[in-house]
Queue: 3 jobs
Job 1
Amino acid sequence: MTKLSLAILLLGACSGLSAIGNTLIRLASQQELRNRLNNTGFDHFVEKTSIDQELGGREQHPLEVINAVNSALYDYSQIIKNPVLNMLMREGKPRLIKIILQEHPQAIKYLKEKNLLQ
């Protein structure tokens, strides 16, 4: 998926912002996010993308989290260049997002309702 198609996906999803409004959520700290992802099998992904540094401790809308994960997955695919590993990471995207948002069930519910967490 190209960065342009990621941007189009994000813009399309923004049409339904009213379900969660403009509410921003505070994500887990960088250290907590790194530990959580490392302990659930995403350690190589964290090492190569630094997604913990990008998201940790920040206030973001759930759609921004989706965009950051999509961008990190794209970057990871460009770094790794292993089709099998890249496919596994794309399949693990919903789990990755749920781990990042685990203390925000309303955000997970919102993304599921928008069919963005599948």
Job 2
Amino acid sequence: MERVTFAIRWDEEEPCQLVYIVDNGVVKATTVQSRKGLLVVRYDVEAAASHQLEWSLLFLRETRSNLEAIYQRDGGDRRSLARVTTALNHWSSGGAA
């Protein structure tokens, strides 16, 4: 097994809610609340050469700026999966690690 840290950060101090994160087709978390400008989820996954991730972040009736999703496996190097300058109401995206 590998230990994954998945994080999303943004500029505003208002919180967001992670609706889901999926790693290689397996739901790893749902309905996670964030702190100010940062959401962090840690979970275990089966070892694999690569991981395909999908996520959805919710912040209804609000805008978030400079969103970035970051992936780290077993305490190794952090890797940026996706970035967006501005999002309104939600951000759903994915990336490979």
Job 3
Amino acid sequence: MPSEYRTRRDAYVQPKGHRPFKDPAKLDFRDKAEQKAQLTSYARSKWPRARRIDIDLNSREIVVDGRPVANFALHEPRTP
């Protein structure tokens, strides 16, 4: 049963062996399926030639073509 409240988070993505990307993914999701879909579209913008992108929410990894390529961390959005 999906929650009726939306959650806003910034997802900071760090490719393995590299610095984190400067632009975080701005997420606004209601359930895990929406969160996964939004992270997948963000990852598609970073790895456009990938054939398959999977998001593992438990280990917080982004898997591209069967290979774990990045980790991500969720944070509350900063308010100015």
